[in-house]
Structure formats: structure tokens, C-alpha cells
């Protein structure tokens, strides 16, 4: 369904919404290298750690990771509700993997390990569990992850854990109680905020992928977008989207510094 922004600027879709086609994901600024390292880690059946500030592009890289991993060889499970005790955490994983939940944490642990083992032996699928917002996991759950990944006296790698979170996740893993998990993680990638040049490239790419045939944001408008967002792409989306709405309402064809500033005033980021 079209809306005012699309009609005014002749776009095929809203350029800064969450629904981004996989082929247009923004992978510049080290994200492609981070993705390649994550794919390599999973292909070598390792665990991985992904950290970055909120809105830095972690989910974008995770989506690209899912697209790169063949479903014939990898079974990717995504878990975002991680603020759970051990029993409810295992219950969530059981539902995600199509396993009937059991009455106790121990029974669900065994059921999950059997399912992962069967998936590997019968279907040649390596299990990959992506744990988003892992910095929010309770210590009792986080400290048990290395046990979940332990198969046959820790002699087989049938599961890859991908822990994703804010930078403080790494600091938590360095604590003594989590050292056993940290020493099992073979790859760590960090995602940084964009530079001014990368912010400009990001906005232009998102506009072009939505069907823009000419420049919409002026140079000074792009400069203010980066200044207000700090290069955090999620904030760029909010601010740019608000500026486009205001420009459409005022029948402006260009989004300059003034439009960006006034559009930002209608968001909680300004």
C-alpha cells in the first residue's frame, strides 16, 4: 500500500522502514568483513560473539548471516526472549526447535541435546542458536550455555552459539563465573557507529533501493542527520523517516538541514 512519502517522492516503498529486502542490507563499514568472519566461524562449528551499541547494525548482520547459511546444512534458531531462568529458557528453545517441552529443566536439556544430535546425524544439519540481547541473560542461564553445547564428553561440535549484545556482554563473559563459556568462543566481532561518509552512503543506498531516481537529501541535511544520530543507523532511520514525512507534508522536494532539524524535533532523539 502506498503512502504520502512514497507518492510524494515517487518511491516503491518506505525507505527507512524495518522491512528491508535481504539483497539491500547495508554491509559497508566493516559489516561485510564481520559477516564473513561469522560465516567462517559457523562453518567451522565454532561459537561466536557479536557486540555493538544499540542500533549499530547487529540485527542487519544477523539477517545477512541467516541468508548466507544454507538451510540444507544449517538449522538456524533465533531466540530474543533471553531474560529467563534456566527452565523457561530451555522451554523457549524447545518450542523454537520443535521439541515437546518437558516438566523439568534437566529433561528439556536432554531433549534438546537429542534433537541437535539427531539433526546432525540424520539430516547433516549443524544447529546454530542465535541469542539476541544476550547481555540481559541472568547469570544462572548464561553460565550454563557451555554445558548445553557439550556433546560426548566435549569431543564433538554439534552446536554453534552466536551471542549478540551490547559491549558490556564481553565484560560479563570475562568474569570468573563465565570464563568456561568465554574460552569456547572462537570469533568476536564488534560493530561500530558509522563515519559521516558511511552515513551518507547508507542514506543514499536506502533511498535508491526504495526507488529514488534523484538526490532527495541535500549535503547539509545529510551532515545534520549524521550529527544528530551519531552514526547509529537505527537513529538515522528514525530521523530520516521523520524528515521525509515533514517534507512530504510541506510539499518540499528536497530535505535540507532545516527540514531535518524540524523533523527531528518530532522524535525523542532530538
Task: Report on this structure.
The chain has 270 residues and is of the alpha/beta class. The chain folds into two domains: 31-191, Rossmann fold; 194-264, Helicase, Ruva Protein, domain 3 (Orthogonal Bundle). It contains 13 helices and five strands. The chain has helices at residues 4-9, 31-43, 58-68, 86-96, 105-123, 139-142, 145-148, 168-173, 179-182, 196-209, 219-229, 233-249, 257-264, and strands spanning 47-52, 74-79, 126-131, 159-165, 185-191.
Keywords:
single chain, 270 residues, alpha/beta, Rossmann fold, Helicase, Ruva Protein, domain 3, 2 domains, 5-stranded parallel beta sheet, 13 helices
CATH superfamily of the largest domain: P-loop containing nucleotide triphosphate hydrolases
User: What is Rg?
Assistant: 21 Å
* Domains, number: 2
Summarize the main sheet.
Answer: 5 strands, parallel
Level-2 CATH architecture of the largest domain:
3-Layer(aba) Sandwich
Number of strands: 5
Number of helical stretches of at least 4 residues = 13
Distance linking N and C termini: 30 Å
| Secondary structural class | alpha/beta
Low-pLDDT parts are: none
Strand order within the widest beta sheet: 2-3-4-1-5
| Quaternary structure annotation | single chain
Helix content: 40-55%
Query: Which descriptor suits the 3D outline?
Result: elongated
Q: Tell me the CATH topology of the largest domain.
A: Rossmann fold
Give the SSE string: HHEHEHHEHHEHHEHHHH
Strand composition percent: 5-15%
- Summed over residues and divided by their number, the pLDDT gives a mean of 92
Which CATH class of the largest domain?
Alpha Beta
Amino acid at each position: 500500500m502506498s503512502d504520502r512519502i512514497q507518492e510524494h517522492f515517487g518511491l516503491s516503498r518506505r525507505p527507512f522502514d524495518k522491512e528491508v529486502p535481504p539483497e539491500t542490507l547495508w554491509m559497508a563499514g566493516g559489516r561485510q568483513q564481520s559477516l564473513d568472519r561469522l560465516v567462517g566461524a559457523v562453518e567451522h562449528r565454532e561459537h561466536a560473539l557479536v557486540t555493538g551499541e544499540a542500533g549499530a547494525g547487529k540485527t542487519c548482520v544477523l539477517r545477512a548471516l541467516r541468508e548466507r547459511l544454507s538451510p540444507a546444512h544449517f538449522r538456524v534458531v533465533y531466540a530474543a526472549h533471553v531474560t529467563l531462568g534456566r527452565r523457561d529458557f530451555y522451554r523457549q528453545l524447545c518450542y523454537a526447535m520443535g521439541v515437546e517441552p518437558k516438566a523439568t529443566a534437566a529433561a528439556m536439556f536432554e531433549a534438546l541435546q537429542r534433537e541437535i544430535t539427531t539433526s546432525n546425524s540424520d539430516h547433516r544439519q549443524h544447529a546454530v542458536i542465535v541469542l539476541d540481547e544476550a547481555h540481559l541473560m541472568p547469570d544462572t542461564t548464561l553460565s550454563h550455555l557451555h554445558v548445553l553445547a557439550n556433546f560426548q564428553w566435549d569431543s564433538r561440535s554439534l552446536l554453534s552459539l552466536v551471542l549478540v549484545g551490547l559491549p558490556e556482554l564481553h565484560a560479563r563473559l570475562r568474569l570468573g563465573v563465565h570464563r568456561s563459556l568465554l574460552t569456547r568462543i572462537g570469533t568476536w566481532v564488534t560493530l561500530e557507529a558509522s563515519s559521516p561518509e558511511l552515513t551518507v552512503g547508507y542514506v543514499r543506498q536506502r533511498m535508491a533501493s526504495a526507488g529514488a531516481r534523484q538526490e532527495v537529501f541535500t549535503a547539509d541535511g545529510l551532515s545534520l542527520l549524521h550529527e544528530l544520530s551519531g552514526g547509529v543507523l537505527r537513529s538515522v532511520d528514525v530521523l530520516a523517516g521523520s524528515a521525509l514525512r515533514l517534507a512530504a507534508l510541506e510539499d518540499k522536494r528536497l530535505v535540507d538541514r532545516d527540514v531535518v532539524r524540524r523533523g527531528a524535533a518530532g522524535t525523542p532523539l532530538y
